[in-house]
């Protein structure tokens, strides 16, 4: 029996349209199940339309600041007021393209929880870090930045997504064993501080997940679902991934 709530999340990145909202909400409303949470992360302008269509919704980032003179930024409270439930923090594209540091990510995590949004903390190593055997070091530092700022208890109302950077958008998925090893490392690391919290923590895998590889990934003990990029833009693929989660999680 599953001890954790499973989740399949779709990160649209800078893609999508009102037409896609229609297609994906129809598809998701067909596969909805009590066994899994299905959540989409569209660009900001599509958030309200997606919520109105009955899909559980999050945003891809938020500002770490409270409302004020921050042109172009989006306040977490506004996101919450619109009816969103989740927010991605620390996605590797935010870290690498927009220079978000571990400490900025921890600030965003904190701001999300202040307003009642559930943060999904994205962690993962680059290709060179992986080749140099630094995966655990990098992932631990990304998680420790949050624990040092907020204490381990803050992880209780959150989700962690392990997304190796070398697997994002490349078609090079981590093998189920490779991903399981890192997920187990994450869970054991948190269990050393709070065992019950770690056992209840949903940890997602992301990086070139598709309808062909999702079942084996989701069958791993410490993989509780997926954070899907490219395949979340195709109704057939995303529905099939959700279906595979129902069987294995
Ligand atoms: O970055 C991702 C989800 O946040 C993964 O993207 P892909 O599934 O396209 O590799």
Automatic annotation (TrEMBL):
List of residues binding substrate: 11-13, 169, 208, 229-230
Assigned EC number: 5.3.1.1
SUPFAM superfamilies in alphabetical order: Triosephosphate isomerase (TIM)
Keyword terms of this UniProt record: Cytoplasm, Gluconeogenesis, Glycolysis, Isomerase
Cell location: Cytoplasm
The keyword Phosphoprotein is assigned to this record: no
Top-level taxon in the UniProt lineage: Bacteria
GO molecular function terms listed in the Swiss-Prot or TrEMBL record: isomerase activity
Broad enzyme group: isomerase
Biological pathway: Carbohydrate degradation; glycolysis; D-glyceraldehyde 3-phosphate from glycerone phosphate: step 1/1; Carbohydrate biosynthesis; gluconeogenesis; Carbohydrate metabolism; erythritol degradation
Endpoints of the signal sequence: none
NCBIfam families: tim
Function noted in UniProt: Involved in the gluconeogenesis. Catalyzes stereospecifically the conversion of dihydroxyacetone phosphate (DHAP) to D-glyceraldehyde-3-phosphate (G3P).
Subunit structure as annotated in this protein's UniProt entry: Homodimer.
Family membership noted in the UniProt record: Belongs to the triosephosphate isomerase family.
Name of the molecule in the record: Triosephosphate isomerase
Encoding gene, per UniProt annotation: tpiA
